[in-house]
Amino acid sequence: MSDALSSETALVLFSGGQDSTTCLAWALSRFARVETLGFDYGQRHAIELACRDRLLDGIKALRADWAARLGESHTLSIPTLAAVSETALTRDVAIAMGADGLPNTFVPGRNLVFLTFAAALAYRRGISHIVGGMCETDYSGYPDCRDETIRAMQFALSLGMAKTFELHTPLMWIDKAATWKLAHDLGGDGLVDLIREQSHTCYLGERGAPHDWGYGCGECPACSLRAKGWREFVAGG
Questions:
Q1: Quick one: which residues bind ATP (predicted)?
Q2: Known binding-site positions
Q3: How far apart are the first and last CA of the chain?
Q4: Contacts of 110 (CB under 8 A, 6+ apart)
Q5: pLDDT for 161-209, tens place per residue?
Q6: Considering Cα of 230, then 16, then 170, then 82, what sign does the dihedral take?
Q7: Looking at residues 105-110, what average pLDDT do you find?
């Protein structure tokens, strides 16, 4: 990250999950000011939205310089996304693989819509840098998480708004174990514990008994990835 970027502002797509919290810490270690954006799109695991304030409070308590850099927290409501989606994230149906080879947790167009709204907000606020937790290494096969998709969106958004945007995806080429390690590198045990205790990843919105890796049903694909990554992180520590 150049010295020029360290004086600029970034907008982080902040859902309240493990990945977006790690991305928030990544941005806070690089940019002079960081704003956050969450989306209420009718997701079954909307409890993640309630986790964001606790995570932001925890981030501020971890490091004074991060507290000083944190700016506005935004939430956009886009219920239309759920209205046009028949998926396990927006309907009370069992998680399964679809006939197209994609899991039915795939919400078509979700990241494309998120990035478009994020860019529109960033445009209004004079922000050029947008940070997201998309990952091609340890994911569920979602085509809108691919690096090629993000690069295409960066080009389209910059062209369509006549403004140069840079989309940062610090998790793109790392797995969940490396994501836990990145959190530790950025914020030590304090950040890792905050993510374990306060972030939410479970597709079913389960916040019952805690596991070593945090809260969740322990069975859905999101929980399985998070738990597997945690075990590998601990084993490698």
A1: 14-24
A2: 14-24, 202, 217, 220, 223
A3: 27
A4: 41, 81, 144
A5: 999 999 999 999 999 999 999 999 999 999 999 999 999 988 877 888 8
A6: positive
A7: 66
% the chain with pLDDT above 90: 62
Q: How far is CA 49 from CA 20, 45, 46, in A?
A: 12, 8, 6
Q: Which residue, among 19, 1, 16, has the nearest Cα to 172 in the 3D structure?
A: 19
- Reduced to 3 states, what is the DSSP secondary structure of residue 141? coil
- Dump the DSSP string for 182-226: HHHHHHHHHHHHHHHHH----TT---SS-BTTBSS-S-SHHHHHH
- In angstroms, the CA 52 to CA 136 distance is 24
CB 156 within 8 A of CB 111: no
- Among all chains, which residue has been given the structure tokens 């972030």? 199
Residue numbers in the known binding site for Zn(2+) are 202, 217, 220, 223
> What are the tens digits of pLDDT across the range 20-35?
999 999 999 999 999 9
Pairwise pLDDT comparison (93 vs 230), residue with the higher score: 230
DSSP assignment letter at 21? H
Tell me how far apart the alpha carbons of residues 170 and 152 are, in angstroms, rounded to a whole number: 17
Q: How far is CA 6 from CA 28, 54, 170, in A?
A: 10, 26, 16
Q: For the stretch 31-55, what's the b/e string if a residue is b when 16 or more beta carbons lie within 10 angstroms of its beta carbon?
A: bebbbbbbbebbbbbebbbebbeeb
* Residue ranges in the chain assigned as alpha helix (H): 18-28, 47-62, 64-69, 80-83, 110-125, 147-161, 176-198, 221-236
CB 53 within 8 Å of CB 75:
no
